[in-house]
Write the structure tokens for this entry.
Amino acid sequence: MAIIVQKYGGTSVGSLNRIEAVADNIIKTRQQGHQVVVVLSAMSGETNRLLAMAHSLDKQPSNRELDMLLATGEQTSIALLAIALIQRGYSAVSLLAHQIGILTDNHFGRARIKSIDNKRLLQSLEQEQIVIVAGFQGVDVEKNITTLGRGGSDTSAIAIAATLGASECQIFTDVDGIYTADPRVVPAARKLDCISFDEMLVMANLGAKVLHNRSVEYAMRHNLPIRVLSSFCEGKGTRVINQQNEEWLLKQQDISSVVHQQQEVMISLSDIPTNEVVDAIFIALANENIDVDMINQSFHNRRSEIITPLISLSFTLHKRDRLHAVSVLQNVTQTYHLPTIKIVENIAKLSVVGVGVKSQVDMVFSILAQKNITISLIFSSEIHISVIINEIDLIKGLDALHDAFNLTLLT
């Protein structure tokens, strides 16, 4: 009897009718002979409602107390689902993270899972119970409630699946799989039957919202297959697997997807005297848990005479961190007497992902140039190339790249 871990997102449990539909879906899996562990998010809109209440009291509420507050959303959804399953004649138990020993670090709002004690889970499964676990949360060594950040229920599910040695972790969302682009933005986008961990991790890091990036890292580390499915309609979904385990996956196309990320800002500083000051900038941001994305560094002289070149630095980060980052950077600029910080908003990141992207770099630049799209920053790796462009050009760029690489027509 295989163990299947299923995760349902907020829209999947967004109402009592949806919770009952999820209960029926779980029963189908159980009737196929599987043991089932379910991980739930809060009901759709609940986390935002709780955040709004907190921010109405304090514009910058305590991170610890925010985690205490936000963790209540999952407690509601897991209890309701357990009630629905019990009413249908199935033995079910709802458990909070601390009850099954999900231990995290103490970075409130962005905690990372350190370990999971599977004894309570295995005990419940041996008693033929359907186990329903609150996603998105854990506890630190001092028993403080922590949360894993937006999308953290994916990570909860995959970590639990790895701990139990599950045969597969099924992620149920409001889309029926992973697409060559966001189908809400690019209607011609095509659903992928299968994708490698490497490509999915890059897509998640670059802005694809189907899977949380930490969850993909965890699955990749434990070689745990993921399947992304819709909770609203039946289908085979998209499998995320280790490409070395599937010969046919090695024959996949050079370019698998085009991904975009909005909600970004670019920060620039100039006349930085030494690399030590550059290091001080990034250390200060890291100490405040501010994630920096794309980075560009260049050198210039103030005058024509030969002197030690000054450094110009530009980098991007999420818009939610803008005010915090500026506050941190102002301390650095005052310490080292740097010029004013320049902030560019209304930008977007556009990325092309695939195992053969290195051979397509010139084509990417050519396509964007043909559409008169100006590139502000560039970053590339073995498996992707990303550019920062004006947000107004995003749709035009997405459509152009998706069409140029024939992503709609791939088989």
Observations:
- Residues 3-251 form a domain with the Carbamate kinase fold (CATH 3.40.1160.10).
